[in-house]
């Protein structure tokens, strides 16, 4: 993952959210949330509906202001120098902010102008973002005549048109068909190479496939801020599917260090729940080779994220 | 300043992409043309010549026409301003503006100038009608100018009020009706001035949007009238800025 490598080499902090709260009247939508995003990092917001995710994103973009706390984008405070801070932000809200009666070119030119792109560079910027989002053929079409997927792409195109340091996307793949979802994910991963990306989603595999780090917000509180690698590595119990041509008795398998539970799912297939992930897998493979069990399948079932999510958002403490 | 210009042209362009702007142009022209024809007909009718003997064409036709124009503007401005902010909010496109590196002041000024651009185009077309009289008669051009200035100022204040109301709601129709209500009250305020104490009457008459327009229509250029309209426009623009700024907080 080149984005991970980038983020290790270049740990410049692009977004810092410092003890931020937001109230709607007396209701607390976001409560004392702090986190930061580094250059080249793709951050996934994973939240149940109504948990304060959109509010947090809108605060980072300056659409809403925080009731308390500070937000800095590329070193500029959102309240003190909003213009400088917003220069580095591209925002795709849940509902793409489109003007239905304009065509794609007109809309993107306007968005580029709003983002302060100089006249000489306008054409290049529009062409570049269209090419990036696969909109080369649709420049002259009215936005209202485009399909949902293409409208979403236009929304992404306006968010990246000024090559911002940070791209923030609220549910970028909602309402798209599976092919479009794959394309958009590919695009997000590409963006992660040279921009920082914050995206929110309800779809867990999406986080697993594109994000470097996960934030879970529940009822306005930040309950998890962890890199995906670490999350998967550290997770206490990991389900593992293995298949052996010459399986030993169940008991032998159960006695391997780190194996918590074991189920036989077929003649040759087993489901093993093991502790401390990789180490246990190593032990199983070594043992399988040494005792000639003829291991031909070993698949880690990566639903650790789902488990964590459910645990955290149902109010149970995983510790 | 550049940004203000881009927002204004965008606003103007979007107005003309919708049928509403064109229909308003057509309806206003049609109604005023009928009215123009009626006054013109009465003015040149020999049997009524004695009534108008003391007045010139400017005072009867031009003033009469532009007076009606003022009332028509009152009716149509709400339809022009209703979209400015309520529609952006309804469709969510306002988030594009709020997350862009522009200030709320630039945003409001841009929208305001866009609406004014439309209204001034409309006034330009309307002005052609009295100007066409130049083919047959002489006009008091300075009075015409003063009356047009009155219309410009009047529409500027209407637009500012409409803009502010539009910033309050996310339903264009609600914005239109409320703007109309407010404009109408401000317009007829001097009627209420017929009752009550001297001071009360004076305040109401002074506050009425109509009163100051009539001076300019009669060719009386009083800087107090001009300042009155500029003040009304300024106050409502400031209120819009304040309102949108505050919306982010609450």
Can you walk through the features of this model?
The complex is a heterodimer of chains A (319) and B (250). Chain A has 319 residues and is α/β, with parallel strands linked by helices. Chain A contains 12 helices and 14 strands. In chain A, helix 7 links the parallel strand 7 (166-170) and strand 8. The longest helix of chain A is centred in the middle third of the chain and has 17 residues, at 178-194. Chain A is elongated. Chain B has one domain. Chain B has helices at 2-17, 19-44, 57-81, 83-91, 94-98, 104-131, 141-166, 172-192, 198-207, 209-217, 223-247. In chain B, 80% of the residues lie in helices and 0% in strands. Chain B is built from 11 helices and no strands. Classes of the chains: A alpha/beta (319), B mainly alpha (250).
Keywords:
heterodimer, A: 319 residues, alpha/beta, Rossmann fold, Alpha-Beta Plaits, 2 domains, six-stranded mixed sheet, four-stranded antiparallel sheet, 12 helices, 29% strand, B: 250 residues, mainly alpha, 0% strand, globular
Structural class of the secondary elements of chain A?
alpha/beta
**β-strand amount of chain A:** 25-35%
Number of helices of chain A: 12
Largest sheet of chain B: none
pLDDT under 50 segments of chain B (min length 5)? Answer: none
Largest interface: A-B, 34 and 24 residues
In one word, what is the shape of chain B? Answer: globular
Structural class by helix and strand composition of chain B: mainly alpha
- Poorly predicted runs of chain A are none
- What is the total number of structural domains of chain A? 2
The proportion of residues forming helix of chain B, as a percent range, comes to: over 70%
Termini separation of chain B: 28 Å
Question: What is the CATH architecture assignment of the largest domain in chain A?
Answer: 3-Layer(aba) Sandwich
How large is the share of residues in beta strands of chain B? under 5%
Average pLDDT value of chain B?
A: 89
Q: If you average the pLDDT of chain A, what whole number results? A: 83
The CATH topology of the largest domain in chain A, please? Rossmann fold
What is Rg of chain A?
A: 23 Å
């Amino acid at each position: 993952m080149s984005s991970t490598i980038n983020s290790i080499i270049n740990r410049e902090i692009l977004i810092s959210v410092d003890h931020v709260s937001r109230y709607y009247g007396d209701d607390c939508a976001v409560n004392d949330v702090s986190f930061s995003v580094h250059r080249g990092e793709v951050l996934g917001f994973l939240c149940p509906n109504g948990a304060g995710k959109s509010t947090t994103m809108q605060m980072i973009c300056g659409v809403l202001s925080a009731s308390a706390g500070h937000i800095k984008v590329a070193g500029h405070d959102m309240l003190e120098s909003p213009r400088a801070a917003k220069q580095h932000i591209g925002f795709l809200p849940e509902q793409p902010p489109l003007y239905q009666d304009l065509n794609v070119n007109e809309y993107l030119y306007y968005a580029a102008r709003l983002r302060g792109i100089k006249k000489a560079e306008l054409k290049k910027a529009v062409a570049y973002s269209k090419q990036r989002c696969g909109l080369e053929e649709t420049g002259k079409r009215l936005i209202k005549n485009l399909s949902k997927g293409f409208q979403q792409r236009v929304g992404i195109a306006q968010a990246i048109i000024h090559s911002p340091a940070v791209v923030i996307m609220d549910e970028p793949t909602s309402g798209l068909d599976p092919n479009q979802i794959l394309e958009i994910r590919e695009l997000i991963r590409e963006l992660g190479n040279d921009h920082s990306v914050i995206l929110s989603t309800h779809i867990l595999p999406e986080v697993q496939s594109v994000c470097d780090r996960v934030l879970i917000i529940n009822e306005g509180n930040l309950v998890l801020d962890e890199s995906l690698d670490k999350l998967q590595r550290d997770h206490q119990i990991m389900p593992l599917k293995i298949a052996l041509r010459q399986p030993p008795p169940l008991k032998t398998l159960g006695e391997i260090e780190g194996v918590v539970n074991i189920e036989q799912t077929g003649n040759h297939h087993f489901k093993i729940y093991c502790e401390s992930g990789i180490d246990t897998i190593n032990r199983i493979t070594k043992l399988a080779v040494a005792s000639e069990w003829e291991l031909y399948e070993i698949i880690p079932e990566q639903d650790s994220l789902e488990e964590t999510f459910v645990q955290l958002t149902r109010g149970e403490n995983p510790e | 300043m550049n940004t203000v210009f881009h927002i204004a042209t965008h606003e103007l362009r979007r107005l003309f992409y919708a049928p509403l702007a064109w229909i308003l142009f057509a309806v206003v022209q049609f109604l005023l043309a009928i009215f123009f024809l009626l006054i013109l007909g009465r003015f040149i009718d020999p049997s009524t010549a004695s009534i108008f003997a003391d007045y010139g064409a400017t005072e009867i036709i031009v003033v009469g026409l532009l007076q009606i124009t003022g009332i028509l503007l009152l009716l149509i401005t709400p339809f022009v301003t209703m979209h400015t902010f309520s529609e952006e909010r309804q469709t969510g496109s306002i988030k594009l503006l709020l997350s862009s590196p522009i200030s709320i002041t630039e945003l409001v000024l841009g929208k305001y100038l866009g609406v004014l651009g439309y209204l001034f185009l409309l006034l330009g077309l309307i002005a052609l009608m009295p100007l066409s009289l130049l083919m047959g008669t002489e006009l008091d051009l300075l009075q015409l100018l003063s009356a047009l200035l009155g219309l410009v100022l009047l529409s500027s204040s209407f637009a500012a009020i409409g803009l502010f109301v539009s910033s309050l709601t996310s339903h264009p129709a609600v914005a239109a009706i409320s703007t109309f209500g407010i404009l109408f009250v401000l317009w007829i305020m001097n009627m209420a001035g017929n009752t009550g104490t001297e001071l009360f009457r004076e305040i109401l008459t002074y506050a009425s949007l109509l009163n100051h327009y009539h001076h300019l229509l009669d060719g009386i250029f009083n800087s107090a009238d001009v300042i009155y309209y500029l003040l009304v426009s300024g106050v409502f623009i400031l209120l819009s800025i304040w309102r949108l700024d505050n919306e982010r907080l609450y």
